[in-house]
Amino acid sequence: MADILFVRHRRSRQFRRNDMYETNLPDDEVRRMYRFSTDNIDRLVRLVEPTLQRRTRRNRALTVRQQLLMTLRFLASGTFLYVIGDTFGVDVATVSRVVTEVTDCLFRLKNVVIRFPISDADRRRVMTGFYAIRGFSGVIGCIDGTHVRIISPGGPDEVSYVNRKSFHSINVRRNL
Fold first, then answer.
1. Residue 40: enclosing H or E segment and its boundaries?
2. Which stretches of the chain are assigned E, i.e. beta strand?
3. C-alpha pair distances (Å), 84 with each of 69, 93, 98, 106, 145
């Protein structure tokens, strides 16, 4: 029998372009894509940088800004992870890991950046700010919530569970 020589051919490595959104976009475009202004994104980068900075000597590591932009784009668009991966030129597993790490990092910072005004001076400053922005007087804080779709409960109070988009839901908020 003849000897058969099997030669394994390695596929050449292909590097995806992961600096796709490091370009200078107009601020209105940045706000539309990420729901944050460029200045606020820069502030967030400075806040999360100590935690998210990659401690590696690899030349293709994601920057803190890239990680944050991936997460903000995912949260702002509500799309699938693989779409974000294709957009930024990284694997879906990388996007999943990045989104988890960034959201965990932001959650750990909640007590640093979210504070209820305690002193009278702080309350007056916040009330003045809300009034200057939208003309609301006497406001010292706000919360956010979401509608969770439910099956119609029926009965005489059924109409109380119909929201403005005409489906049954419960308005919920999360306590941090």
1. helix 38-52
2. 145-149, 169-173
3. 10, 11, 11, 19, 25
CB contact set of 109 (below 8 Å; sequence gap of 6+):
47, 48
- Helix (H) or strand (E) segment spanning residue 75: helix 64-77
In this structure, which amino acid lies at residue 28?
D
Token pair 């100590």 is found at 50
Cα separation of 81 and 87, whole Å? Answer: 10
Q: Which backbone phi and psi does 170 adopt, to 5 degrees?
A: -120, 130
* Phi/psi at 11 (5° precision): -70, 140
Q: Read off the pTM.
A: 0.67
Residue type, 17: R
The per-residue pLDDT for range 32-82, each reduced to its tens digit, is 999 999 999 999 999 999 999 877 777 778 999 999 999 999 998 888 999
Q: Which residues contact 15 (CB under 8 A, 6 or more apart)?
A: 60
